[in-house]
Amino acid sequence: MIEARGLTKRYGQKLAVDDLSFTVKPGHVTGFLGPNGAGKSTTMRMVLGLDNPTAGDVRINGKRYHELKNPLRTVGALLDAKWVHPNRTARAHLRWMARSNGIGMKRVDEVLEQVGLADVARRKAGGFSLGMSQRLGIATALLGDPEVLLFDEPVNGLDPEGIHWIRRFMQGLAAEGRTVFVSSHLLSEMSLTAEELVVVGRGKLIAQCSTAEFVDSAGSSSVLVRTPEAPQLKRLLADEQITVRTAADDRLVLDGVTTERIGEIAAQHRIVLHELTAQRGSLEDAFMQLTSDAVEYPTALGEAELTAQGVAR
Ligand SMILES: Nc1ncnc2c1ncn2[C@@H]1O[C@H](COP(=O)(O)OP(=O)(O)OP(=O)(O)O)[C@@H](O)[C@H]1O
């Protein structure tokens, strides 16, 4: 369990984390969601005692990081997969970490096996792909068999197979009853990975709820229509003051209207429909609505919108 209360971090004039309170419970993956610069990494560093809060505090299983007797046995983290010494083999890196934390060498082989690196354990980490480095970072986090795990943007730059592996792996760790807290600005990815969310924007808490509740709370839903007579239907909808959000070739996406209403209008005017589907608001829609005034770098959301197409809908 991770509990942050009034957590605040100021860098000079910059308030990176602003009075943040949230709880991350064991048993499911909790996504830490927010655009670039929202304060996610700073918060994770404070959880791990790498940065001191300006105010407030954060506890892991009731204790501040510095109060933990065997930190690696309580909390494991993947912050930056590339910090491993490039000339060390994966095995040597893990053995060194294990030795300096009083962890038995047997555990090194166990975690190498667990993350699928056993076959490359004697290769130098400097030659690893990003995906392999992420796996080594995860193996390092797992060394002490900790109950609490933190992953900062673990899927950044990975190919679909790597993303899928990490997603399943994190869900497996949560299913074992661990507390899994994972940050991302990739909203579609979070909708597939996390059951619970802590959402931040400009250092402030925007929401803490289940992923499903977050999507529902934004209440944005739309209707997708496919018709070979899109221009005619579009004209009719304009007469009825129905908002067309997007129109491309034979597809229209409509806001604030039911499928029944569109079906009736189409039938009245003998317009052929190939598809009429109610679309539940995506995580992206919810995020855009709830964070619209909390975005530090709008380009991050541009990317999120691109990711949304075809993934979360
Ligand atoms: N050491 C520092 N000194 C000054 N400002 C900092 C420092 N670390 C972070 N910041 C600022 O604090 C804010 C939050 O940064 P942080 O890296 O925590 O955000 P983030 O949500 O993790 O975003 P990203 O995904 O881009 O890393 C940003 O405006 C950042 O520029």
Automatic annotation (TrEMBL):
Residues 2-227 form the ABC transporter domain. The keyword Cytoplasm does not apply. Coiled coil: none annotated. CDD domains: ABC_BcrA_bacitracin_resist. Gene3D superfamilies: P-loop containing nucleotide triphosphate hydrolases. SMART domains: AAA. Keywords: ATP-binding, Nucleotide-binding, Transport. The keyword Signal does not apply. Transmembrane segments: none annotated. GO terms for molecular function: ATP binding; ATP hydrolysis activity. PROSITE patterns: ABC_TRANSPORTER_1 (PS00211), ABC_TRANSPORTER_2 (PS50893). Belongs to the ABC transporter superfamily. This is ABC-2 type transport system ATP-binding protein. It comes from Saccharopolyspora flava.
